[in-house]
Write a structure and sequence with these properties.
6-stranded parallel β-sheet; Rossmann fold; globular; 4 domains; about 675 residues
């Protein structure tokens, strides 16, 4: 293995001495390489050593295995395990038979709580835990759930717990705006990881040389003096407000803001509880108009109109009552005028003009560039804008989008992500237009320029994005309107970044100069966390058993049609919530095949399912054990009526009734596929 740089050797010293530490180095500073060094030294010097490398994203499992750990640890058994690998089903056996396991944190968390011998492991099976992007070790994050096992065992007196090595580019301030609150946040991260935080003290110039900060530029524009397209959309929104006459329900913020989006989301929840379909549908449509305003502010007018047009085309033929006729009629009546306005280049977005100038200036020379934008929709629109821009095409700019994994037209499978990054590395594309998925973790080549476009994020996200601009003389550009919220947030993040550095320095000084005081604070934070978690778990168990499953009714959130009872729902692998009542099929229609880009042992995705009455998206079918097709539903698509009230939970863990595990044999018997039956 190649030698480490001096600053890397400095930060690993305490880990080599078997202390629990968090390595704090900027993106590009070689944290993972330092971790490989520690792992190799640990394996070479520790009897019966066993290392777990935990990551928070599936694609990082293979990336760390192939690019970081496999070659330096040649001679040791290193195995990657993620949610789409067969090995996860024999995790306990894999751990016993391997020296190093690289896995998603969720795989280990599942194994810690699983009672099956082949899948269960104890934390004491490992002698070293390496936790990538460890600033996520807080609240209900899976890293923190794993470390809660650790802290609880430590408090109980367990002495065989593994050494911990955390890696982060920024612990952040946790939302704190003062030095004291930022210090408390860093202390909490240290307590959660049972570690001290280390950074280079003696070799800062070398680190600065290896990871130079890019030159920061604010590429600012004046706001559009006139925007008749925006004005017209807002006038239509006012008409919808007049139609629903709901101003007294909640105070609304300004149209075209994220605060207004939160307002209409809240309005829709109120409407569902009241079973007021007029309010519910108006809220849904207003949210789409607000999306269009946000897109108009970010990219082109034609993109904003396309979003609305796609939304209303999807609802054709499904008018249920006067509200639907009013909302669809309003759009149809105004469509041609909106189309004419959207085609008037005299009112086009000045931020796009500035972005064009920024890119043309950069690509006068061979370059690689990333544009970070807020949403998948925005990345798609920006990509279409680049491809339609002859000046950018003539400059040799070849753009590709990079967004998160999932389902839907704007999502990407992990293989698609991998192929896109490969094409960027090989210069088939030289411009990535990405959501936050490219900020941390992904093995993306050094860039000459990073552009932040239409973003409101925290200081950690800002630092991660800036860290992608690592080429010599690189540029970090912020394209925004003068005096905009994006600029104000960027300035605040600069202050918070400095606050983070001061907080870390103060915690480090406390640990060195007042070691006993530091340890008492860490111990108090750990004990508080354990007691708090125990109380929260009791409260959650009580809430989960508030009502009997037979007394709870699920209704479509789009049209309020009752479609199932809580007792019709079963859960597979503590993840997939399916309806086992065969009568449920009369309430939904199926659409296109879902492609997740991954393979699973016991199930595979089927077609999308939507409400037969109002076309509300409900989820998808899954084929279980290759023989049983079951509807797998998304709880956000339904309201739940209990004997006491109607609620709209965001996640399955929030439902107020117990959900039984799916019993395949019992289900097979119930539908005539069981043992002892004549299947002919």
């Amino acid at each position: 293995m190649a030698d480490l740089r001096d600053y890397q050797l400095e930060v690993v010293q305490r880990a080599v001495r078997r202390e629990n530490i968090i390595i704090w180095l900027p993106t590009g500073g070689g944290k993972t390489r330092a971790a490989v060094f520690v792992a190799k030294r640990h394996l070479d010097t520790t009897p019966n050593a066993k290392v777990a490398v935990l990551v928070n994203k599936v694609h990082l499992v293979v990336q760390h295995y192939e690019n970081e750990f496999r070659e330096p640890l040649r001679g040791y058994s290193v195995i990657p395990i993620s949610g789409d690998s067969d090995e996860k089903n024999f995790f306990g056996s894999m751990v016993r038979d391997s020296d190093v396991v690289i896995c998603t944190a969720q795989i280990l968390q599942n194994a810690l709580t699983n009672t099956e011998e082949d899948k269960h492991v104890e934390l004491t099976a490992f002698t070293l835990l390496i936790i990538d992007e460890c600033h996520h070790t807080h609240k209900d994050g899976v890293y923190n759930k794993i470390m809660e096992h650790y802290i609880k065992r430590k408090i109980e007196g367990e002495t065989r717990l593994p050494q911990v090595l955390g890696l982060t580019a920024s612990p952040g301030t946790g939302g704190g705006k003062t030095l004291d609150s930022a210090v408390n946040h860093v202390l909490q991260i240290c307590a959660n990881l049972d570690s001290v935080i280390v950074s280079t003290e003696n070799y800062k110039p070398e680190l600065t040389q290896v990871v130079p900060r890019p030159r920061k530029e604010y590429d600012l524009v004046e706001r559009r003096p006139l925007d008749p397209f925006e004005d017209h959309l807002k006038s239509m929104m006012k008409m919808i407000h007049g139609f629903m006459a709901s101003e007294e329900l909640i105070p609304f913020h300004e149209f075209g803001t994220q605060e207004y989006e939160a307002d209409v989301v809240q309005l829709e929840k109120i409407a569902v509880v009241k079973e007021d379909r007029l309010l519910s549908q108006c809220a849904i449509h207003l949210r789409k108009y607000n999306d269009a305003l946000l897109i108009n502010d970010t990219v082109r007018m034609v993109d904003a109109l396309q979003v609305l047009n796609e939304f209303y085309r999807s609802k054709e033929g499904f008018a249920l009552e006067g509200t639907d006729y009013f909302l669809s009629g309003l759009f149809e009546e105004n469509y041609m005028e909106l189309k004419l306005l959207a085609q008037d280049m005299g009112f086009e977005n000045p931020k796009l003009v500035r972005l064009e100038q920024t890119l043309l200036e950069q690509f006068k020379r061979p370059s690689k560039c990333i544009i970070f934008s807020r949403t998948r929709q925005a990345t798609r629109c920006l990509s279409e804008w680049v491809r339609a821009n002859t000046k950018l095409m003539d400059a040799g700019i070849r753009a590709a989008t990079l967004v998160g994994a999932g389902t839907g037209d704007t999502h990407m499978t992990q293989n698609m992500q991998k192929d896109t990054i490969k094409s960027f590395r090989e210069n088939k594309h030289n411009l990535l237009i990405s959501t936050s998925v490219a900020e941390e973790g992904l093995d993306i080549p050094e860039c000459n320029m990073v552009v932040r476009y239409g973003l409101l994020t925290n200081e950690i996200s800002q630092q991660q994005a800036r860290g992608r601009a690592r080429a010599e003389n690189s540029v970090y550009s912020v394209v925004a309107a003068q005096g905009s919220r994006e600029i104000r947030r960027e300035k605040v993040n600069e202050i918070l970044e400095e606050l983070t550095s001061k907080a870390v320095a103060k915690v480090q000084l406390m640990e060195r100069a007042e070691n006993q005081t530091y340890r008492r604070k860490i111990a108090a934070l750990q004990q508080t966390a354990v007691v708090t978690r125990m109380m929260e778990d009791k409260m959650k168990d009580k809430a989960r058993n508030r009502f009997a499953a037979t007394d709870v009714q699920l209704s479509c959130r789009g049209c309020f049609t009752p479609v199932a009872h809580g007792s019709d729902i079963k859960v597979i692998e503590n993840s997939h919530h399916v309806i086992v009542n065969p009568d449920f099929k009369m309430y939904f229609t199926t659409g296109g095949q879902v492609n997740l880009g991954r393979h699973f042992e016991d199930w595979e995705p089927g077609r999308t399912i939507t409400c037969a009455k109002c076309r509300k998206d409900w989820g998808m079918e899954i084929k279980f054990k290759k023989v049983v097709i079951l509807p797998c539903i998304n709880i956000k698509s339904f309201s739940i009526k209990t004997p006491r009230d109607t609620i709209t939970p965001k996640q399955w863990k929030d439902v107020p009734f117990p959900v039984e595990e799916f019993d395949f044999l019992k289900y097979a018997d119930s539908v005539g596929l069981g043992f002892g039956l004549d299947l002919d």
